[in-house]
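pinging the channel bc i need a second pair of eyes. not urgent but kinda urgent?? the chain im working w is below, pasted from the shared doc
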Amino acid sequence: QVQLVESAGGLVQAGGSLTLSCVGSGFTFSTFKMGWFRQAPGKEREFVAGSNYGGWGINYADSVKGRFTISRDNAKNTVYLQMNSLKPEDTAVYYCTAASDLVVVGGKWRSTDIQYWGKGTLVTVSS
């Protein structure tokens, strides 16, 4: 059974930092591209960051470039999202995702290419 289990999110003040982690199981982690999407209240789900199999091919949404960093440890079946300089508009439910292959369009992953989704974890940034 495939599982993607995100770490707990939390409440952070604007300007603060938070690191999310996600452990994958039930599939061969190193052969999947791993990424993060998010969904803010009342908005559509959007791509945040993604990493290819070995971690050398990285994509970020423009809104998080320079502030968020995605990384992965294939030995631990874990992908991370380090979030710095958080803003209130980063408030959302963050989802860990996995795809065996996908097409990057305009520097973004498409949600329709994602094979596995985590349950999501809420990050709230207060102003």
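so The two ends are 40 Å apart (CA to CA). and The mean pLDDT is 96. — does that match what u expected or am i reading it wrong
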